[in-house]
Amino acid sequence: MALAGTAVEIPIKRLFNRTRPFVALTVANVIGERPSGYSFPSAHTATSFAAAWLLSRHYPRRTPLLFGVAGLVGLSRLYLGVHYLTDVLVGAALGVALAEAYRRAGG
Known about the structure:
CATH architecture: Up-down Bundle
CATH superfamily: Phosphatidic acid phosphatase type 2/haloperoxidase
Radius of gyration: 14 Å
Number of helices: 5
Mean pLDDT: 85
Number of domains: 1
Shape: flat
CATH topology: Vanadium-containing Chloroperoxidase, domain 1
């Protein structure tokens, strides 16, 4: 699961260099600390969706709960003003894709 966050945080964010909403938009409000680094994609969302994907394979009856929590993590990134919607959507997709690749590789 940490692999998803690292895979997003290091190469992908540096590739796109997208500034965070509170830097690019003067109307964006931030709740809490202003994170450093780039915005696209959301590593928090990628990690939470990777975890939901892998855990749902072991606990299939808990799948709605797991993805519900992952979705809330994504929504929290929007609410806090630290990500754009596309950051969250791509982070979710990358998290699932990386988790599935890890699972298929025998992880």
